[in-house]
Each structure stands twice: as C-alpha cells, then as structure tokens.
Amino acid sequence: TALDVVDDTTPLISKRPSTELDEDKPEDGPYRADFTRFESNRHWILLLVSLTSFVGPISMTLFLPSIPLVVIDLETTEAKVDLAVALYMLMLGTAPVVWAAVSDRYGRKFLLATGLGIHAVTSVACGFSWNVEALICFRVLQSIGVSSLLVVGAGVVADIYPPEVRGNALGWFTMAPAVGPLFGPLMGGAVAELLGWRWIFWGSAILGAFFCCTSAFLLPETHPRSYQPATPYTEEEDRKWSLITVIRPFQLLLDPRVAAMSLGNGFCQSTTLGVLVIFPITLSSTFNLDPMYIGLCYLPYGLCALVGSSLGGRLSDLVANKYGPSARLLTAICGIFCYGLSGLLFVFADAFALILSATGLLGFFFCFQRPGVYSFLIQNYPGDSSGVSASVLFIQYTLGFLATMIGPQVWNTPDGKFWFFMAYAIATFLSTIPIGYFVKQSWKVPHHGQD
C-alpha cells in the first residue's frame, strides 16, 4: 500500500513540551490513571459532568433571545449588548488556560465546584445590572467561572475512560455544551417573556448553585493523584512542573497537528457563535418574532447537534479501533468540510424554513467533528487532557469572539452576509487539508482478519 504502516505503540505526537523534566520521570507527569477504578460508576460520573457542562453554554444562550429587551431596558445599543456576549466567549477561551494548569495539579472536583460557585454569585449580580457597563463586567466574571467546566470536565472523562472507548464518551460530553443552544434560548425566551430578562440570570444562578452542590457532594475525585502516590519530585522539579502546566496549552499549539485541528474546530465554532448572536436580531427584525418564538427557532440546531455528537463519537471509536488513532480524524475532516458547505446555505437563506434548515445542518456537522478532534488529541497527550482541551478552547472561543464582534457589522453592509459565510467556508475547507495530510502520514493498515 502507498500508506505508511505505523506500529501500534508508536505515539503520533510527542507527549512532552520542549522544556523537559528529568528523563527518568514519567512522560505524562508523576501519576498514572487506573481506568478500572471507576469502571462500575464511570457512566454516572460522565452523566454528572456532562450535565454540569450544560451550565456554560446555557448561560450564554439564555441571554440571546432577550437582547432586544435589554437594549430597551438599559437604554443602550445592540453593539454594546453584543459586546457582553463577545467578551463572555473570549473569556471562555482564555480562562481555561489557568483552570487547566490548576486542575492537572490539584484535581478536578474542587475546581468544578469553585467554577460553579463563581458562576452562581456573578449571575445574581448580572440580574441586578443597572447599566450595560455593569452587565458587561459581571458577564466577564461569570464566564471566568463557567470556563472551568469544559476543560476540567474533559479531564474527568480522560481520567475514567480508556482510549478505546473514550471517543464515544467524549461524544456525549462535548454534546452537552454543544446543545446548550437548544435549551438556553427556549428557556431564556420564555422567562424573558413572562418574568423579564433579569430573571434569566437569577434562574441561571439557581442552576449553577444546584450543580455546585452536586459536584461538591456527589462527584468523586478522579485525578490519579487522589489514589496513588506520586513519583517523588524535588521541590525545584515540582515548581518547574507547575510552570510547564501553565504555559503548556500554548506550547501544544506549536505542534502542527494541534494547531490544525484547533483551527478547523475553531472556524466551525466561530461561525456558529456568529450565527447564534445574529440569529435573534434577524428573526426579530425580519419576521417580527417575540423572544419566546425566537427561542423555539433554536430547536433545529439543538436537535441536530444531539444526533451529530452521538453519531460522530461512535464512528470515531469504530474507525480508530480498526485503523488506529489517526483514523479518528476522518470524522473530523468530514464534519468540518460539510460544515463549510452548510454555512454557504445561509448566503441564499431568505425563507424562514431554509434558515432553520441551515441552522440544523450547522449544529449536526459542528458536533459530528468534535469527538474525533478531542479524543485524538487527548489520546496522544495522556498527561495533558486538560491542557490540550484548553488549547482547543482558546482557539475556538478567540475566533468566536472575533466572529461575534465583526459579524453584526459585516451583515449590515451590502453583500456582507455573502462575504461573511464565504470567508468562513473557505477557511473550513482549507483547514481540512493539513488534517488529511496527518491522517495519511500516520495511517495504520488493518490487521489480517479484519473486515
């Protein structure tokens, strides 16, 4: 065959940063995961961290249908309210860098409970915002709290699931934050219509407090340091390891594979976030819909995202078990490329039904590609599950911040809608080229006897 055959034990990516600890120390830090330890209850742990990870995107999308009401009540402009959404996304990408370092050093449980506690307190403050500047400030603090959920939750999944079934588990975990747009706008639109937009944040505080308690009392500590002694490090080496974990997400982005996959996933995420921010304004101005009905219009995205995550995770495990870890990226390539095609539908989407259909396709292919990206990177960085997740989140939410800042201004210009989606479609298409190259370089031919 023209494809390269690699040994099962050959790592596809270097697992260590360039700043090495002593050579006789374990590659992925002083701890080793024991996957059998949580085998009997790992599905319940997955369910808990997946439900917990809903809080962040729900808190983001609860707010979207009420943007027109907030503009009127706070006597401000749509651009300033959009800034509150954009900065929320920016902090979702940057704060996990710190959360990841602390999580890999001090464990998962405390960090989850702490992040949820910060979210609950700042959500109450958002509800009492007296002007748009106060709302923006509290939203930034709120985002810092919930940003811990995505990166620490991915670490929990890596702690308890072995590589051969991790793709399906990550499919369910990444589905949870991806389908937040299904429940967030539905609940937010109804609450804003019946009780006012401030109760959106007070309700979010109640939700955050509930999951803070469940994480503190029901979630076991899964980090290996909680049940096994560490390889003895000197105090100097321990400080060195702490420094490495802080800068590790940025070091990982220097690896071409991590950069390519983060960009591919990031272009999809940023397009989605741009659409979701513009969506309520478009529906309100073009079709004269109130917040409750705007929330219902997010249903196609959420339902299709649900199906895409489940299918993408299962196919990722299936091809990886047959052809090797790099084959997981086939689902990522397919999802990213088809996502770009789906985005082009918005260029011609003027009819109400066509807009909803295009939104559903975006949700499906965005969530279809995510399990392959996450499971491949985590499998090849076994000691950096939180760090590599932080790398992906940094790119996707930084690009999302730019999309939500630029998107509304571009759409209001002649042919702006066309160029917005055309630019992102081209970017997603191009991002599949290096990913496909990496798949070809490390492909493994199936063993004899396999179908």
Detailed description of the structure:
The chain has about 450 residues and is an all-alpha fold. The protein is about 75% helix and about 0% strand.
Cα-to-Cα separation, first versus last residue = 17 Å
Inertia-based shape? globular
| Beta-strand proportion | under 5%
Class by alpha and beta content: mainly alpha
Number of separate strands = 0
Rg of Cα set: 21 Å
Helix percentage = over 70%
By DSSP (H or I, 4+ residues per run), the number of helices equals 18
Mean pLDDT: 75
| Element pattern in H and E | HHHHHHHHHHHHHHHHHH
Low-confidence stretches: 1-30, 447-451
* Largest pleated sheet: none
Describe this protein with a few key phrases.
mainly alpha; 18 helices; disordered N terminus
Detail the topology: elements first, then pairings.
Layout: H1 42-52, H2 55-61, H3 67-73, H4 78-94, H5 96-106, H6 109-127, H7 132-160, H8 163-178, H9 180-194, H10 198-218, H11 235-252, H12 256-287, H13 291-296, H14 299-323, H15 329-348, H16 352-380, H17 385-411, H18 416-441
